[in-house]
Amino acid sequence: MIDLMNLGSGGALMLTSVILIGIGLFAVITRRNLIRIIIGLEVIATGVNINFIAMSLLKQGTVVDPTAHALTIISIVLDGALVGVALALTLVVYRKFGTLDTDEIRKLRW
Amino acid sequence: MVVDIVLLVMGVGVFLTPIIGYLLGNKERYLGYFTALIQLIALIYIYIYLFKGGSLSEQFYLFNSPVSSILVFDGLSLFFTTVFLIIGFISSIHSIGYMSHDRNLTIYYTLYLLMMLGLVGLSMAYDLFTFFVFWEAMAISSYVLVAFRYHLDEPVEAGMKYLIMSGVGSLLMLYAITLIYGVVGSLRLDYIIQYMSSFMSIGNYGLLMVPAAIISLLMVGFGIKAAYFPFWTWLPDAHPAAPSPISALLSGIVIKAGILGIMRFVLPVVSNSRYAASFGAPIYVLAILTMTIPNIMALMQDDIKRLLAYSSIVNIGFILIGLASYSYGSYYYGAASALSHVFSHALGKALGFLAVGGIIYSMETREIRKMFGLGRHRPLVALALTMALLSLAGMPPLPGFWSKWLLILGAIDSGLWWLAFFGVFNSVLAVLYYLWLIQRIFFAEPTDEVLSSGEVHPAIKVSLIVLMGFMIIIGLYPQFMYGLAFNASKALAPLLHV
Lengths: 110, 498
Prior knowledge:
The structure holds two protein chains of two kinds.
Chain A: H1 10-30, H2 34-58, H3 66-97
Chain B: H1 3-24, H2 31-51, E1 58-61, E2 70-73, H3 75-98, H4 105-124, H5 128-146, H6 153-184, H7 189-199, H8 209-226, H9 235-241, H10 244-271, H11 276-299, H12 304-327, H13 334-363, H14 379-393, H15 399-413, H16 417-443, H17 448-451, H18 458-476, H19 479-492
Antiparallel strand pairs in B: 1-2
């Protein structure tokens, strides 16, 4: 349980994570290149993981809670799997369509 | 001792599948039997456990602390595990026939079982991080399965689109999970409910922004998977592009994982606070939009899998009716009606996609115009498709009727007359294209494609007959479905004791 009015040193990290998530969402929504979109996904993932660490700093007490760090490592592994699949699919897309531009590979009605 | 055994059986299956596939060599298509067997063992084990008088409140953890990972086996787990494993079992029998000309089947069946493991784990996860891990296992394997036939254009593009949208959704969900961890100090559902119910009764409206933001983020994460308004855009592309057994899984059970997330982690929290109705109001609007717009889109489709995909979105809207009436106070009918619609829609839509799989196997087309007059030449497949469509339309002796009836009853019970009206209206609108399709399939003159169509693989026939038989049993004896659903809705309200 934390005091929401007094964020302390975790506040700066929380702000960082919000900014990173904003940048990532912006990239995913506005960019047309698949690699850039995947980089955007990774930036969101980084922001979320930083927020996890920030939240462990917010908990009151002298010892930092190790749970958040353990969970962050697991979530980094899951992000790795996601990006691996995404890059593999991107490779297939490039071999098939010869481009990474999402406007040009648009055969389906998006 | 049921949670760990079931997950162990599935997990051992996931690890054994590549080994057996390697040993089988070029006979790897027989892996389908192994996949079906693993899921059948898990399903039968659960029912033996229950038959022997096993309890429906089992918890499984290594050490009992606020931060430990915890799995439960309660009514909700029983309900969703049953649905997932039945559909998964039948679809894997179907895969034996449908995928018999494909290569890389070892990868296919490994990912298939991994997705099923993720789904079964989701239904048992009681803390948010365990939920997230199983969620990602399910999601990542489903991206690959959608794009499995990567020598074609459409699956690759649809898989990419699905991956990007769903990836953003699950990351936003993880962000909400981190915020819950910061606010509550634990990710376990019982701690979250306790904290939130005291937090929300403080009466400081500025602070209420925090749970509101968290719940909105969670609803976005679950909503992209469940494909309600406005997050459905990936669904009409991804579901038709996938191989038919995978379409049946995606439409039947994977989108229900989003509903499971809402039921497990959002509904108990909001219904134990004083603000249940202010959660219900957006759900009310979402339900109406999710039902109506895709219904009109479905009228215009000429691709049968795309039509069924739009109909899936419509049915997610129907399920949201149940959630809305639950948060407006109909504790008895609300959740149970949503759950029984999950059950009946999973059966109906899986049967629909499997029957379409049979059609694609014999005719290699998805255009509705080329399927006219199918009933006289491929009677079993046409009968299966008809039964699926009639169940989705809500014809009385089939499961679709029993769940839609309960949904309308729940909406009226909580006083949401407009929601009940839109539910009935959209049912009728959907009957338009279902009946048109049935009429064309049975009474139109057969096209050349139908006349030159090949024989359907026996495994496909077996899967269709098994699922049709199960649907008839549920239709004549809906107490099984209702019993599971009402049991599950009791597990939803640990503090309310309704």
